[in-house]
TrEMBL record:
Name listed for the protein in its UniProt record: Glutathione S-transferase
Record family assignment: Belongs to the GST superfamily.
Organism: Pantoea eucrina
Domain GST N-terminal: 1-80
Matches recorded under Pfam families: GST_C, GST_N
Transmembrane region(s): none
Highest taxon above the source species: Bacteria
Domain GST C-terminal: 86-221
SUPFAM superfamilies in UniProt: GST C-terminal domain-like, Thioredoxin-like
Origin organism lineage: Bacteria, Pseudomonadati, Pseudomonadota, Gammaproteobacteria, Enterobacterales
InterPro entries assigned: Glutathione-S-Trfase_C-like (IPR010987), Glutathione-S-Trfase_C_sf (IPR036282), Glutathione_S-Trfase (IPR040079), Glutathione_S-Trfase_N (IPR004045), GST_C (IPR004046), Thioredoxin-like_sf (IPR036249)
Amino acid sequence: MITVHHLENSRSHRVLWLLEELAVPYQIKRYQRENTMLAPDELKKVHPLGKSPVITDGNRVIAESGAILEYLQLKYDSEQQLTLSNEDEQIQGRYWLHYAEGSLMPLLIIKLVFAQLSKKPVPWLLRPIGGAMRKGMEKAWLNKQLALHTRVIEQHLSQHAFFAGSRFSIADVQMSFPLLALQMRGGLHDLPATTRWLEEMQQRAAWQRALKQGGPIKFSD
């Protein structure tokens, strides 16, 4: 049986969601974050990087969200419910599958890291400097980059029901996490198509079941 090594409040919700969509039996091994919000060292016993998501399937250990989603689809989508037969949709789905972690998530991580510069454990004397650095970086570069990316996403979803095109696919599963993070941080204002898509994803029965299994998803500022 597949074991999902699930770190609380993490990207592994996507793995649970896909398993629920495919109705694949699985079990969850839960891990709690340290006070630093990092994953515990116990995860390094599963994969040397000690990060989530990671799954074990027999003797196989598979990490990285995109690789896990592709593996699960290839091995367990026996009814081909997520298979894209149209070549253009295959190309489009593959693009968004890799875009999520390769282009969009790094921007969100940078935003999160800079947000911590004005908080503990940064010494209180340095926090005003950290806050000033954050505001300067966001104004000069980061906010413009995020605005560019969200415009591209909005334009795409205003023309397509799903990221691959006309069918739900693992590209939608992969894109859910960064867009949920943006929504919870107030970054989807005036993006009706993107908001519509995310609401529809959250209404899927498999999403709801995964949420019950893995717990709520929260994002710190």
